[in-house]
Design brief:
Layout (H helix, E strand, L loop, with lengths): L24 E9 L33 H24 L5 E4 L1 H4 L3 H9 L3 E4 L12 H19 L5 E2 L8 H8 L4 E2 L9 E5 L2 E5 L20 H20 L4 E8 L6 H14 L5 E3 L2 H11 L14 H8 L7 H9 L9 H14 L2 H9 L7 H4 L5 H9 L7 H18 L12 H11 L4 H25 L1
Amino acid sequence: MRYPRDLAGHGPNPPHANWPGGANVAVQFVLNYEEGGENNILHGDDASEAFLADVVGAAPWPGARHWNIESMYEYGARAGFWRLHKLFTQAELPLTVYGVATALMRAPQQVQAMLDADWEIASHGYKWVEHKDMERQDEADQIAQAVRLHTVATGSRPLGWYTGRCSVNTVDLVSEQGGFAYISDTYDDDLPYWRVHNAKPQLIIPYTLANNDMRFVTASGFANGEEFFQALKDSFDCLYREGEEGSPKMMSIGLHCRLVGQPGRFEGLRRFVDYIGGFDKVWVARRVDIARHWADHHPYQPPRLAPSQMDAESFMATFGGVFEHSPFIAQRAWEAELGPANDSPLGIHFALRNQFRMASDDERLGVLNAHPDLAGKLAAARRLTADSTSEQASAGLDALTDGERATFTDLNTRYVEKFGFPFIIAVRDNTKASILEAFKNRLENDRDTEFATACAQVERIAQLRIEALFAD
């Protein structure tokens, strides 16, 4: 069983973005241009649009036009767009347009204004419609059609993609289409990252529905421009501070012509533009500029090992010996749920360790008994596994004096007689002296305490072995 979702991401130590000029945050404004591409029977759709408009509780009208919602979308094209165009061109701030292909084909003036301003025009799909129930091939055909019409309308193919009302297949299909510097149909991070599909890496630049004016027309959203400004300011302040602390991030801001283009809402956006102008280390960029920067500074690096992608044979050959002479642990891990979160030393140790912990007491006792005595007969006969040989040598247990060997033999004998399994310790964490000290101290434990202690040491040995595999 393979779990496709990546719940690990960059982890606690994300890569340093190295934004131009040492910026603490990259701010990225997106203007969604959807007007003329929404659901409408004039466009061949089955019903009217009902999404992201100032009609509370709107529902699609099958086979009919919704004059009020059409008019609200038209406001975005006729008035809201030009208000936003003036703000960003006067402030000389770049932005990215998410352009619906059929909307762009109905917007000659707006498209020319976008091109004249040197705005990036990314694809926002063929039509501004829902894709969740669309057949895979139908969606693939619409992606190709969107690229074709986008190229016709703007003069060049899109380098960025965002469907928005997407399906579970969208990101895979756009990756398969190829030619995109980035895809933004995710909301899962504050930094770009690489996603592999069909053995090919695709850059993902996550988007946002939090710093997004769509919340003017959704439940628990913004009531006015001041609330929008405050939400944007708080997000910016947090990310700017994190950048000052050495972890620069990216801030996406989603805008719609018919929403924040309304005068009262617009004032909140204008205040935010003025606010960030008071900070020195801010990089306001187009999305494609962020994509190019990331590809230059953080190119895709294939993982040293990707356990969740291994077949059974490869997995067992790599991890079957991590728990001493106990391949059933690795076998159970491979048969259980593995995903991207397990494709790291910590992640795969977590999966293996959990199988060890879920084993019965007798099975775990068997794992303990599979370990050799320290400096015992197997070592003397050179019959240890390669890992055990290396580990014992790291603490000098392969070069004991006669007196030291006699001490170890005595301790081993007493320990096994008392507990019924050999003394186990993560040798690489210790010296010969500390091992002897632990040996003597742990002989004073009761059996339950020592069983738990030995199991913890088995897990630690496995962890060190896994780390060595990833380091090779």
